[in-house]
Design brief:
With about 150 residues, this protein is an alpha/beta fold. The protein has a single domain, classed as Ribose 5-phosphate Isomerase B, Chain: A (3-Layer(aba) Sandwich), CATH 3.40.1400.10. It is built from 6 helices and 5 strands, in the order E-H-E-H-E-H-E-H-E-H-H. Strands 2-1-3-5-4 form a 5-stranded parallel β-sheet, with helices on both faces. Helix 4 links the parallel strand 4 and strand 5. Helix 2 crosses helix 3 and helix 4 runs parallel beside helix 5. It is globular. The termini are far apart. The structure holds D-ribose (RB5). The site of D-ribose has 8 residues, from helix 3.
């Protein structure tokens, strides 16, 4: 599985640690930046990861900024993206099972690296359940297409 990862200047350290963690587990991680702690704008990275998912260059994405809010809002403006901010693993798992999220986001100023790893593990190991949830996800897509 190919994972796109993106972050702003606030989250470079957390991104690097997560990347190493995921690569050690055998995932291919494509890093869309930012690469330095010089001030940068989260919409750039949110959009880059979102576009890579829609084009099929990566299978899913992880986005990190200070809160996870700005970068996920940016990604959600791209058609076909379902990104959510999670600060704990339960919502992360359910967001895949019920909402078929293709991006998980969190805040480097909100949670620590160990919580981030747990969130990512639960999310990556969960599968969309389809069924009644498919109809609701289709309704979200219909809003996007209005
Ligand atoms: C940058 O200071 C901060 O605004 C950004 O990382 C993020 O938290 C925005 O949602």
């Amino acid at each position: 599985m190919k994972i796109g990862i993106g972050n702003d200047h606030v989250a470079v350290d957390m991104k690097n640690e997560l990347k190493e963690y995921l690569e050690a587990k055998g995932y291919e991680v494509v890093d869309f930046g930012a690469h330095s702690s010089e001030k940068s704008d989260y919409p750039v990275y949110g959009e880059a990861v979102a576009n890579a998912i829609v084009s099929g260059d990566v299978d899913c994405g992880i986005l990190i900024c200070g809160t996870g809010v700005g970068i996920s809002l940016s990604a959600n403006k791209v058609k076909g993206i379902r990104a959510c901010v999670c600060s704990e693993p339960y919502s992360a798992k359910l967001s895949k099972q019920h909402n078929n999220t293709n991006i998980i986001a969190f805040g480097a100023r909100v949670i620590g690296i160990e919580m981030a790893k747990m969130i990512v593990d639960e999310w990556l190991n969960a599968s969309f359940e389809g069924g009644r949830h498919q109809r609701r996800v289709d309704m979200i897509t219909a809003i996007e297409n209005k």
